[in-house]
Amino acid sequence: MRAEIIAVGTELLLGHTLNTHASFLSRECSELGIGVYYHITVGDNRDRLKEVIRTARERSDLVILTGGLGPTEDDLTKETVAEVLGIELVEHPPTRRWIEDLFRQRGMPVPSGNYKQALVFPQGTVFPNDRGTAPGLAVTHEGVTYVMLPGPPHELIPMFEKQVKPFLISLLPEKEVIHSQVLRFFGIGESYLEERIKDLIDRQNNPTIAPYAKRGEVTIRLTAKASNVQEAEERIAPVRQAILERVGAYCYSERDETLEQVTVNQLRDRGQTLALAESCTGGLVAQMITSVPGASEVFKGGVVCYTNEAKEWLLQVPRNIIDVHGAISMETACTLAEQAAQRMDADWGLSVTGVAGPSPAEGKPVGLVYVGLAERGRPVRAYRFTFRGSREDIRVRAAKQMLFLLQERIKKGELTT
Amino acid sequence: MRAEIIAVGTELLLGHTLNTHASFLSRECSELGIGVYYHITVGDNRDRLKEVIRTARERSDLVILTGGLGPTEDDLTKETVAEVLGIELVEHPPTRRWIEDLFRQRGMPVPSGNYKQALVFPQGTVFPNDRGTAPGLAVTHEGVTYVMLPGPPHELIPMFEKQVKPFLISLLPEKEVIHSQVLRFFGIGESYLEERIKDLIDRQNNPTIAPYAKRGEVTIRLTAKASNVQEAEERIAPVRQAILERVGAYCYSERDETLEQVTVNQLRDRGQTLALAESCTGGLVAQMITSVPGASEVFKGGVVCYTNEAKEWLLQVPRNIIDVHGAISMETACTLAEQAAQRMDADWGLSVTGVAGPSPAEGKPVGLVYVGLAERGRPVRAYRFTFRGSREDIRVRAAKQMLFLLQERIKKGELTT
């Protein structure tokens, strides 16, 4: 089944509202095995809306329209669908009563515009709206099903979940599911990763293999169609296995988790705790860790030691270490990590000091970053990196690198890193 | 000029990524006076992409495509545009050198896929990408201009602002400038703000008045068309004045700066310094402050005191304050702010402690947040807030509220807050 989603609303074209419905409905559809091939956004304009409906019916079996079911003259989604299909709308008495009751409860007369919300397709389906006045509608005409849903998310989402989803399932010819698994990688570029698995990508069919890069990370989405989830997972398994055999060293999650989620989970599983000392990342790592619900079980705290005073006074970094080696050095990174762990009684101390830019510091170039990692009862280690890009890029890459190092060390132990 | 925006990427159709580019580019275009009539999303599929490009060229003067410029075989935006237009791409030596240099700096050979990123339109425009390997491209063919931009937001946004916007302005038929000023507000809801200036919005013409809400903040963009910038500013001035007379109390920037930029600038102007103690925001405020280049002049450092131990050991918060009043209390907020300022010898100490959720803590409800503010030589103050929304919403709102409080206090002095 081929679907497309048409969002109707000039506010979307002005960029004042994000089209979150398209992604919500796409996720829901792909879980049902309905492939979404296009998203379209068009303004509250009858001619252009007609044109996109005509294009949609030529190429899709299912057309989901959102918005434009309100009471104003601007709202013309169902009227335009009816016009294109040559169907005359009829009044739906239960909806008319519902609207009248709503306004009676508010002690107001029904505004004339609201009566048109009771008009429906004579041979169609009505999805009552218990959060508003506009019911959802569906009609099938010449093999194409049109579903029209109200724009407000707090009306659309529950209506979809309770009424539209079962309706769509009833349309499906075969009971097919589309199931995805996401592998997440760090420390390998997208093009390198792709080169390493090029033959698998070239042969891809079911599952499909979709790599996607974002700021130092690469994700691979494996998507299979099958008659049920278990069968889809069985299709995915050998391909995932083949990918992991080649580039598994860079894979930090096989379940689409972020680096911070993986780190928090690993620490929680081991009953261990973490303390941070951040210089150039300025609190970013702490912010990432604490964005994970339940971080308080494993995160003792952190210091954003942006000045030498903060390093000395909060973490008792000896003045002479900074004087001799500089604040941006292996030695300072080690001491920061050790002191953070000791002073907060944590199992792990993770530190960073470097030059995020835009200007060099201590005569050291922009992008130079040292990471310190202290583990209770083990010698502290420091790592040196050079990152490129803007100040923001360098901070984000350094933060991710720190979490990647930590989760690798937790996973593999000291010897292998 | 009629524009449409085509986003290319299967991940968008699966609903895993929100199409934020369509709204960003729509806002930018409408500010330039370019009407956006359609948003289209299509997968990484040559035939469907061809079809949407063919439809677009029939109805639009400007077609902006995002995504699909990467090094992989899935990336086929420019190849498909070239195919539809019947143009052969040629190698652009400066881009090839840029890509080779990038990989040389990383000490890696250039993966074969990256060479195709140096292919451009022979009669077109190249927008160099200083954040990645894929340059942006533009080409005009039979009266229609096609602009192709890389998908990653941290590449697309600066490229648009620095290079594509001037390029689009050069396409506009009349030599008219479109000039904007942005006012930024905090602490007032969008609908309330709009109500206060409704008559101005209803009468808007030149300048236009566009309010836009995002997470606790509202911006108003005033955009005037005129024959030069000075004339545009003269048109904007009385409208801006009228808005500020009504809602100026909530305005923290008349120059489109963020709260963190305003705060850093104010502190720098006064030669003052700041120290932070963050509990529920977990480093977010430090991260915001340090994202501003030059923050090191004013930011002494911060403590992410996520546990009571961190509060005691790093900031010497007396145990009995936490025992008697709780970690989430006015008293703890005051002590954290004072101790942060004292221990880091800063002019200002700003602290936060609260419940970000998802679960209540210390028997206190999700969303309850205390902010402490200590100024050298003045009595410390604490403020109590209740925020609604997700964990992330509460953290972001709390962080913005802290910066808003601080900048107001710096601006107005103690008595008026």
Automatic annotation (TrEMBL), chains A, B:
Gene3D superfamilies, per database record: 3.30.70.2860, CinA-like (3.90.950.20), MoaB/Mog-like domain (3.40.980.10)
Domain MoaB/Mog residues, every copy: 4-171
Record Pfam families: CinA, CinA_KH, MoCF_biosynth
Record family assignment: Belongs to the CinA family.
PANTHER family the UniProt entry points to: NICOTINAMIDE-NUCLEOTIDE AMIDOHYDROLASE PNCC, NMN AMIDOHYDROLASE-LIKE PROTEIN YFAY
Listed name of the protein: Putative competence-damage inducible protein
